[in-house]
Design goal:
It is built from 20 helices and no strands. With 447 residues, it is mainly α.
């Protein structure tokens, strides 16, 4: 049975209410993941270097904070393997309930941590442990979230409905950013450094409660329920994926790189670059927020477009746009002019990122048969995120330090990843039902 047939099995009529509920349940987990991502990233730039990694050189403290931020990415592939296995063997829903607890409660616990001043080296040690646990949970979170929605949706509208899960990323960005902005306006710098930074982390508990309530209210994926009834579940899904689909895994990881790199770069790393070049943080934050708000509209539009013209053309156009615009982006931001910065942010975030991010939610699941699909997506998603996003977080501040704050090091990094992604995207088979040809069948025959 082909990938498209297995996804469609048992789904004869599209219930808009049901799919909206499933997409909401999936998106809330994505929002929780990115809430942690951006709450930590913002705090790493503004507070954690001083609170957890004190140093005579502020840049060194920031570097250490970002290194801890990157630690979570290294746990993601292992989490992807474990929860991919659980998702393929036990069920998508059970895996998603566990992962949202791990991610959300980890964020909450960061808000309770004593600082270096209180308990010395135990403070950064505990922070690292929490980040590892969170990374492990995130490894299974997003793959399972997009898969749950993709398996509920009708094939010809899967790109549109699955893309709604991806809205969790910009929502997860906007919530902590809004909280930090409000707190910064209401509290003094001393109060923010003392206790105000904790509030966004503690409030993550609300996101977890809502997410758990919604996720527990939905049923297991009908496609997975079908293969469980027929006892078609693979006993070693990860092994089968690696043995039979190494080409798809390799090209999928390559395709993921530019998207994983770009969102973190344009929303977190850019603040550290701006800080090192004495650029207006207010301008950067305001233009970033507008671009992300617009992306809430762009993502489902790009998902719908991928149903009409194919996953690959939309994704490839986004990768090309991000790669070609990276140097103009930094040149525009260097001018520190609001309208120019706003235009640059819209090009890379609203357009470039959404064109890559939206098709992923339907394209990656369609590349694998049902019984190993969760494992396959998790391997692509989390390995690509580690290389594209985690290593960037680990090295970005060091790149800035080595280049004296110049942008060419970061821009060069993006160009290299972009070229790799363009190669991977062009090699993957088209899976959209309206545009799929013989190439997907040929890939599966080779496997």
């Amino acid at each position: 049975m082909t990938s498209s047939q297995t996804v469609a099995a048992g789904i004869t009529k599209d219930s808009h209410h049901l799919i909206r509920r499933v997409a909401s349940a999936s998106a809330i987990g994505t929002a929780a993941e990115y809430y942690d991502f951006f709450a930590y990233g913002t705090a790493a730039v503004l507070f954690f270097g001083h609170l957890f990694f004190p140093s005579s050189d502020p840049l060194i403290g920031t570097l250490a904070a970002f290194a801890t931020y990157a630690v979570g990415f290294f746990a993601r592939p292992l989490g992807g393997i474990v929860f991919g296995h659980i998702g393929d063997k036990v069920g998508r829903k059970k895996a998603l309930v566990i992962t949202i607890l791990m991610v959300g409660l980890g964020t909450f616990c960061i808000g309770l941590l004593p600082t270096y001043e209180k308990i010395g080296f135990w403070a950064p040690t505990l922070l690292i442990v929490i980040r590892i646990i969170q990374g492990f949970g995130v490894g299974g979170e997003q793959a399972g979230a997009v898969l749950m929605t993709a398996e509920y949706a009708e094939p010809h509208r899967r790109g549109y409905f699955a893309s709604w899960v991806q809205i969790g990323a910009p929502v997860g960005f906007l919530l902590p950013m809004a909280l930090f902005a409000v707190l910064t306006a209401l509290l003094s710098a001393e109060e923010m450094m003392s206790w105000g930074w904790r509030i966004p982390f503690l409030l993550s508990a609300l996101l977890v409660i809502v997410g758990m309530f919604i996720r527990l209210s939905i049923d297991e994926s009908p496609v997975f329920a079908s293969i469980r009834e027929t006892k078609a579940a693979e006993s070693r899904p990860v092994v089968e994926v690696l043995r039979n689909y190494p080409g798809i895994i390799c090209c999928g990881v390559a395709a993921k790189l530019i998207e994983a790199c770009s969102f973190g770069l344009f929303t977190v790393i850019i603040l550290a670059w701006g800080k090192s070049n004495q650029l207006s943080a207010t301008t950067m934050m305001e233009t970033m927020i507008v671009a992300i708000l617009l992306e809430l509209i762009a993502i489902p539009l790009m998902g719908r477009l991928s149903d009409r013209i194919g996953r690959r053309p939309v994704y490839l156009a986004g990768a090309l746009l991000l790669t070609l615009s990276i140097f103009p982006f930094f040149i525009a931001m260097s001018q520190d002019v609001f309208w120019l910065s706003q235009l640059a942010m819209i090009v890379v975030l609203t357009l470039g990122h959404s064109m890559c991010y939206a098709p992923q939610a339907s394209w990656f699941p369609e590349l694998f048969p049902t019984h190993i699909r969760c494992s396959g997506i998790a391997l692509i998603w989390q390995t690509g995120s580690l290389i594209g996003g985690g290593i960037l977080g680990l090295t970005a501040v060091k790149i800035l330090q080595m280049t004296g704050g110049h942008y060419y090091g970061l821009a060069g990094y993006v160009v290299v990843l972009g070229l790799i992604s363009i190669w991977g995207i062009s090699r993957l088979p088209e899976t959209a039902p309206a545009k799929r040809g013989a190439e997907l069948h040929n890939w599966q025959q080779k496997a």
